[in-house]
Amino acid sequence: MRGRISGVLAFVLVFGVVAQAAAASTTIHFFAPPRMTLDGKDINETLVEMFNSSQNDIIVEYTPATGDWVEKVSVEFLAGTAPDVVAGWESFFRNWLEQGHALPLDRYLDAELINDFVPGHLRLFQVDGKQMALAHYTGVSGLFYNVDMFDAAGVPYPDETWTWDTIIEAGRKLTRRSGDQVVQWGFDVNGGWDRVIQFIWENGGRVIDEGAVVGNRIYLDEPEAIEALEFQHSLIWEYEIAPPYPFIGRWSHDMFWNGTELAMWQTGSWDVSATFTNCPTCNWNVSVRPRGRTGIASAIHTADGYMVYAGTRHPDEAVRFLLFLVGEEAQRYQMIAGNLQPARLSLGAEYARETEAAQKGINLEVFIEQTAYARPAPLFTKQTEVGQLLWPAIEESILKNERPVRQVFEELTARVNAILAQP
C-alpha cells in the first residue's frame, strides 16, 4: 500500500513539474507561406520543431499562410490580433514595415550579425534608419540555360564575358524553326518588373534615384532606359529569338521546364529547387546575366523577410525565434533541404559546395558572386497606384508590340511622376 501511495505521489510530483513548466512557457505564433522540400515536407514545420526542441521556455505554434492571407494579416494588424512573427516579401511586406506594424530590431542586433547580410536586404527592411525586418533567404537572379541545346548548336555556354550582343548572336543559333513555326526559342524576354529593370541597370540607366529602395520619382524616359527597353522589344520582334508569350499562351518557366522549347531563361536561385522538381530529366546549368554593351553587370535579389509584430505581447521571445530563423542552424537546414540560397553571407561557400544542386553540378557560385552588386527591385511611395500601371505598359509595348516603346514609357513616366508628386 505504501509503495502504491509513493508511486502516486511521484506521479503527481512529476506531473506538477511538467505542468508548471508548460505554464511557464511563452507561446509564440508564427505565420508564413509553406515552403516545401523536394520530398514534400514543409520547411517551416521542421524549423519550428528544431526551435521548440532546443529550449523549454518558448513554444512556437506555426500556421501555414494560405488563401487571401495577405489581406487577412493586414486586417489582424489593425485589429491588434496579428501573429507574433510574420513572413512576407516585396511591396506588401515593405508597406507593413512603413505602416508601423513591425517591431524595431536594432537593440537585439550586433555588428557581427548585421555585417553577415546582403547590404541591399538591410536597406530594404529599414524605415527611418531602424531595422524593421531581416531577410528570410537570398535569392539572386541569373541565367538558366539548357546544356543539351547549347551543345547541339555548338554554342559556348554563357559566362561573365557575355554581353547583349552575345545574346543576339547565340540566340540566333539556338532558335530553331520547322517551316514558319519556331520550335525552339533562343532567349527569354520576361515581362516581370524585376526582369525588365535589370536591362536598364546594365545599360547604365536608373529606375528611381540611385541608392534608394523606395522611389518618389521614376526615370523610364531617360535615353539609357529607353534603349534598354527597346533592346528587349527587339529580341522578340526584330531578331525573333525570344517568344511573344501573350500570343503563344505559354510562359518562360513552362517552356524551359518542358526541356525542348527554350534555351535560356531569366530567373534566379529561387527557381533551382523548382527546376529539379518540374524537369527532372533536364540537363541544365546557370550563369551570371550577360552584361550591357558598356560592360555593366546587374542582378536583383529577393525581398523575402521576417518581421516581429509591433503589438506582440512577447517581444523578446518573438525576436528570439526570429533570430533563430536567420541563424546559422536554420539557414543551413533550409539551404540543404530546399536548395535555398542563405541570407547569411558566411554560408555562401557551403551553399555553392554542399547543397543537392551543387552536388549535381549546378554552378551555384554565380549566385554568390552576384551578391556583391545585387539590389532589390525598386518600389514606390505610392506602390499600389504605380504598380497597376507597370505591367500594362510592358505588355502593350514590349510583349505585344501594339505601340512604340518610347511613346509608351514616356507617357508612363509622366503619369507615374504625376501620381508620385501628389501629397
For the biggest sheet, the summary is: 5 strands, mixed
Give the CA-CA distance, first to last residue.
Answer: 83 Å
Radius of gyration over all CA atoms, rounded: 25 Å
Strand order of the largest sheet: 2-1-3-14-6
Assign the structural class, choosing from mainly alpha, mainly beta, alpha/beta, alpha+beta, or little secondary structure: alpha/beta
What's the overall average pLDDT, rounded? 93
Percent of residues in helices comes to 40-55%
Q: What share of the residues does DSSP label as strand, in percent?
A: 5-15%
Shape: globular
Query: What is the overall number of helices?
Result: 20
Q: How many beta-strand segments?
A: 16
Provide a quick synopsis of the model.
With 423 residues, this protein is α/β, with parallel strands linked by helices.
Defining key terms:
423 residues; alpha/beta; five-stranded mixed beta sheet; three-stranded antiparallel beta sheet; 16 strands; globular
